[in-house]
Design a protein that fits this description.
Blueprint: H1 12-27, H2 29-32, E1 40-45, H3 51-62, E2 66-70, H4 84-92, E3 97-102, H5 107-114, E4 119-124, H6 130-144, E5 150-155, H7 162-171, E6 177-182, H8 191-201, E7 205-208, H9 211-214, E8 220-223, H10 234-240, E9 259-261, H11 282-303
Parallel strand pairs: 1-2, 1-3, 3-4, 5-6, 5-8, 6-7, 8-9
Helix pairs in contact: 1-11, 3-11, 4-5, 6-7, 6-11
Bound molecules: N-carbamoyl-L-aspartate.
Residues 51-52, 123, 129, 132, 162-163, 225, 263-264 line the site of N-carbamoyl-L-aspartate (NCD).
């Protein structure tokens, strides 16, 4: 059964189709409000989440469906030592589709191999987060009118930030995309993304530690949180956590039509004074995430013959 573990499990044509479905949902929500009637989504979240879980659940409710939810590892049989593969088999007996978040890289992949319903990866450790990328792509598309011919600055924790890894993979498939990778030395993009995606595909990119130097050329500035839960020691986290704090002052040299994105939750990376700048798009991203998850659930349930 096909699921979505990596953003590359979706073709460019499918992503583009989902963007157009999401735009249609935005314009005609009533057309979609009963399509998943009687169907169930299970959200299995073994790691903290606010947006992703609630947005999957809101998406299913807005399609007329129902939701079964595990909101933490310690409230499920995972705490008794149940394997991901057994959990996936069990939940397939109750639900038509599963969204899973797990602290271990590869967990959603294992679940999808054992489930008899489609599994969507809602974040696996520091690896990838395809549905955040769908939210990001719809946001860029709605704000900039295109997904190609853009210079994208990715700033912060590029090492552990799974949203960055998936976004690079996704945008690398469009023409004319350039990346500026802005991070402290210790939090640089892992080589499996840098070498296997950027270098292998000949995609132009620069690496720098200096956000201000990069600012004037960016069409998109994607800020990220330093991923405390993936650090081996707290001292390193404390030293690196405030490496970049975006303020209105720092945005002065940004393009007038640039957009500022962040997958959220924000800790300190963007001062609240930036929120009123018309270029700040991070709360729009949240809403776009719900529409893209609706489009994804629809696509996978149609493909599975469930609706
Ligand atoms: C992100 C995640 O979980 O990777 N959050 C989200 O899903 N919007 C980003 C983060 O936690 O920093």
């Amino acid at each position: 059964m096909r699921g979505v573990i990596d953003i590359l499990d979706l073709s460019v044509a499918e992503v583009d189709q989902m963007i157009s479905t999401a735009c249609d949902i935005i314009d005609n929500p009533e057309k979609y409000s009963q399509i998943c009637r009687g169907k169930k989504l299970a959200t299995l979240f073994f790691e903290p989440s606010t947006r992703t879980r609630l947005s999957f659940e809101a998406a299913m409710y807005e399609l007329g469906g129902n939701v079964l939810s595990v909101a933490s590892a310690d409230s499920s049989s995972a705490a008794k030592g149940e394997s991901v593969s057994d959990t996936a088999r069990v939940v397939s007996c109750y639900a038509d589709i599963i969204a899973m978040r797990h602290p271990k890289e590869g967990a959603a992949f294992v679940a999808s191999k054992n489930a008899s319903v489609p599994v969507i990866n809602a974040g696996d450790g520091g690896h990838c987060h395809p549905t955040q990328t769908l939210a990001d792509l719809l946001t860029i598309f709605r704000e900039k009118g295109r997904l190609g011919d853009i210079t994208v600055g990715l700033c912060g924790d590029l090492k552990f930030g799974r949203t960055v890894h998936s976004l690079i993979n996704a945008l690398s498939r469009y023409e004319g995309v350039k990346f500026v990778l802005i991070s402290p030395e210790e939090l640089k993009l892992p080589s499996y993304v840098k070498n296997d995606v950027l270098k292998r595909k000949g995609i132009p990119y620069k690496q720098t530690t200096d956000l201000l130097e990069a600012m004037p050329e960016l069409d998109v500035l994607y800020m990220t949180r330093v991923q405390r839960e993936r650090f081996f020691n707290e001292e390193d986290y404390l030293r690196l956590k405030d490496s970049y704090i975006l303020t209105p002052e720092k945005l002065k040299t940004a393009k007038a039509d640039a957009i500022v994105m962040h997958p959220l939750p924000r800790v300190n990376e963007i001062s609240v004074a930036v929120d009123s700048d018309p270029r700040a798009c991070y709360f729009k991203q949240v809403l776009n995430g719900k529409y893209m998850r609706m489009a994804l659930i629809l696509m996978l349930l149609k493909e599975a013959g469930t609706i």
